[in-house]
């Protein structure tokens, strides 16, 4: 069930990111048009787009994690025997899960504190802006469990680790 | 103060295959806990979140989107055709066309990987058909693609400017001359190799044919002019310019050149969301990491250590370039900037190096690192396109890499080469 539900959930996250990116682009283009053609700036455009950008980043975070697209140095690990690779992958997944749990916990505090700070240009608070962080961490935890399980099965079956395609080179 | 040992832990975790994103958070977190400062560790979370909530970073997803749109379909072909009509009749015409196309492409996308894949898949087969060896064709494609992130717009420069608090416009202006220097030096060395190996010349095109090619390439070629003109003259902010570039690329590729269809748009948007998401998360983690670096006092310790080695500024700069070249062999430019920028930046600025000069040295050096083994991104892409082994491409690339290292040293020891333009444009005094 955990495994079965993951694919549609990740698809939903991807579509949400696509929509938000499109809206971000529209807002910024309209803002450029207003500022340079109509000589009238839309004050909320850049701030709202910045928050949307943050939402996009945290929406795709579980997808990047699942598809192993985060920049990783595999030079050394690729030389290890398959069982060793899977064992190391399990250790790394535990380390990542620890980071996720800590982040989830602390981000709840950040979200709570956000209630007190209003966003200047739109009628929302930082509670709404930061809410995506714990939500993303829940999905990341889910992915982490699945990844750990796959590494365990891979270890049992002496299978080589799938290193995925990193988005290394995204900027370069 | 936290013990700098967390840097060692970070390196161990990274080389054991922990994604850089998590290593950037876990290592300083453990360091702070071990030093009995768990409260400080909570700041890692808030720093990362606030690190991503920064307006200047908005340029990243938009430039990615513009690049993604430009990389698809006919836009690359129009640039290559235009370059061919202009210099295809030179000695080793197609190799020279490859370099000129990279220079023109650099003004559109600013990505070396996209350059290798877009130009390589067109020109490597064409070069092979014209009698060039596969390894030479792959090598010149990889070597010239590093111009991409040096000539603006440049993703890694936006990243650097944000993390290290220097002007994006200034850094863009500083990249133009070094980028052209790399391109022209590659053309020169290619000419020498071509004469020695009797590589062919293409046919000379008439001015009429050149006019037709220019008409095809005109709209894409206008992108860097509008973009850089806007940013460097101060009309556009980099964020507005990036949104404008994305919209411009969308309009010309969707409605005018028709290189993509509406059906492909979700895929283009997703790709841009995923790649920019990966970069932004890394930026957030790096902001948290650099906060711990600052409180650990590493830059000060490093400055003292370097000064105890030598007080000679030129020797220190040489050492700096060696460190970056070695780093570039193992790490991509983006993560390297995020990790090393906060450590080395303050150190060298303390030693009297201009922040913009330091920035351009770092960006150019790490970009050349994309084409150095064993972890050279563009080498891998060139290898997969050409079907040639990486080690054979590397052997053929040695003269090109040597030339690029000479350019790095020139930029290092003659700061005016990169700083004159930003000074003229008022980005520095």
Biggest chain-to-chain interface with counts: A-B, 61 and 74 residues
Beta-strand fraction estimate of chain B: under 5%
What's the gyration radius of chain A in Å?
A: 20 Å
Number of alpha- plus pi-helical segments of chain A: 5
| Pattern of helices and strands of chain B | HHHHHHHHHHHHHHHHHHHH
Number of helices of chain B: 20
Please tell me about this protein's structure.
The complex is a heterodimer of chains A (172) and B (429). Chain A contains five helices and no strands. Chain A has helices at 2-36, 45-66, 82-114, 126-130, 132-156. Chain A is elongated and about 65 Å long. With 429 residues, chain B is mainly alpha-helical. Chain B has 20 helices and no strands.
Properties at a glance:
heterodimer; A: 172 residues; mainly alpha; 5 helices; 0% strand; B: 429 residues; 20 helices
Short note summarizing the structure:
The complex is a heterodimer of chains A (172) and B (429). Chain A is mostly helical.
Describe how the helices and strands are arranged:
The complex is a heterodimer of chains A (172) and B (429).
Chain A: H1 2-36, H2 45-66, H3 82-114, H4 126-130, H5 132-156
Helix pairs in contact in A: 1-2, 2-5, 3-5
Chain B: H1 6-15, H2 20-34, H3 38-52, H4 59-71, H5 74-87, H6 93-106, H7 112-129, H8 134-145, H9 155-164, H10 168-197, H11 207-232, H12 238-256, H13 265-296, H14 298-309, H15 313-330, H16 333-350, H17 355-368, H18 377-386, H19 390-413, H20 416-424
Helix pairs in contact in B: 1-2, 2-3, 2-13, 3-13, 4-12, 4-13, 5-6, 5-11, 6-7, 6-8, 6-10, 7-8, 7-18, 8-18, 8-19, 9-16, 10-17, 10-19, 10-20, 11-12, 13-16, 14-16, 15-17, 15-19, 16-17, 17-19
């Amino acid at each position: 069930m955990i495994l079965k539900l993951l694919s549609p959930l990740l698809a939903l996250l991807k579509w949400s990111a696509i929509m938000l990116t499109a809206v971000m682009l529209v807002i910024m283009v309209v803002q450029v048009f207003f500022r340079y053609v109509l000589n009238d700036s839309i004050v909320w455009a850049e701030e709202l787009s910045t928050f949307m950008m943050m939402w996009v980043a945290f929406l795709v975070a579980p997808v990047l994690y699942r598809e192993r697209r985060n920049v990783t140095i595999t030079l050394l690990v690729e030389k290890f025997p398959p069982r060793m690779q899977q064992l190391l992958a399990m250790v790394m997944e535990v380390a990542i899960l620890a980071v996720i749990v800590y982040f989830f916990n602390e981000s709840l505090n950040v979200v709570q504190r956000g209630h007190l700070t209003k966003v200047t240009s739109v009628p929302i608070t930082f509670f709404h802006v930061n809410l995506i962080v714990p939500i993303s961490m829940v999905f990341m935890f889910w992915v982490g469990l699945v990844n750990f399980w796959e590494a365990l099965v891979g270890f049992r079956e002496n299978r080589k680790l799938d290193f995925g395609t990193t988005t290394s080179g995204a900027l370069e | 103060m936290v013990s700098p040992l967390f840097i060692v832990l970070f390196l161990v975790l990274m080389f054991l295959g922990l994604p850089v994103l998590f290593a950037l958070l876990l290592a300083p977190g453990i360091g702070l806990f071990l030093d009995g400062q768990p409260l400080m560790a909570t700041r890692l979370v808030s720093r990362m979140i606030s690190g991503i909530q920064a307006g200047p970073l908005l340029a990243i997803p938009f430039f990615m989107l513009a690049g993604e749109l430009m990389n698809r379909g006919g836009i690359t072909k129009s640039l290559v055709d235009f370059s061919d009509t202009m210099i295809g009749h030179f000695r080793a015409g197609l190799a020279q066309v490859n370099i000129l196309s990279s220079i023109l492409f650099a003004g559109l996308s600013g990505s070396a990987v996209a350059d290798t894949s877009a130009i390589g898949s067109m020109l490597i087969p064409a070069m092979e058909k014209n009698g060039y060896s596969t390894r030479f064709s792959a090598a010149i494609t990889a070597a010239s693609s590093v111009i991409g992130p040096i000539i603006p717009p440049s993703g890694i420069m936006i990243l650097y400017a944000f993390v290290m608090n220097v002007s994006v416009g200034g850094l863009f202006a500083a990249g133009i001359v070094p980028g052209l220097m790399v391109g022209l030096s590659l053309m020169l060395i290619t000419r020498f190799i071509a004469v020695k190996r009797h590589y062919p010349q293409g046919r000379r095109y008439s001015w009429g044919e050149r006019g037709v090619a220019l008409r095809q390439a005109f709209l894409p070629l206008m992108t860097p002019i509008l973009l850089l003109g806007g940013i460097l003259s101060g009309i556009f902010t980099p964020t507005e310019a990036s949104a404008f570039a994305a919209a411009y690329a969308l309009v010309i590729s969707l409605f005018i050149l028709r290189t993509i269809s509406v059906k492909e748009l979700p895929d283009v948007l997703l790709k841009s969301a995923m790649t920019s998401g990966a970069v932004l998360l890394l930026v957030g983690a790096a902001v948290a990491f650099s906060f711990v670096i600052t409180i650990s006092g590493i830059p000060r310790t490093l400055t003292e250590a370097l000064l105890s080695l030598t007080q000679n500024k030129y020797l220190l700069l040489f050492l700096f370039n060696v460190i970056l070249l070695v780093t570039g062999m193992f790490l991509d430019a983006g993560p390297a900037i995020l990790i090393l920028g906060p450590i080395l930046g303050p150190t060298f600025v303390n030693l009297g190096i201009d922040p913009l000069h330091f920035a351009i040295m770092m960006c150019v050096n790490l970009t050349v690192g994309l084409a150095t083994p064993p972890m050279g991104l563009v080498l891998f892409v060139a290898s997969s396109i050409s079907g040639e082994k990486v080690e054979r491409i590397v052997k053929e690339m040695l003269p090109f890499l040597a030339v690029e290292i000479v350019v790095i040293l020139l930029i290092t020891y003659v700061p005016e080469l990169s700083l004159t333009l930003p000074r003229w444009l008022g980005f520095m005094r």
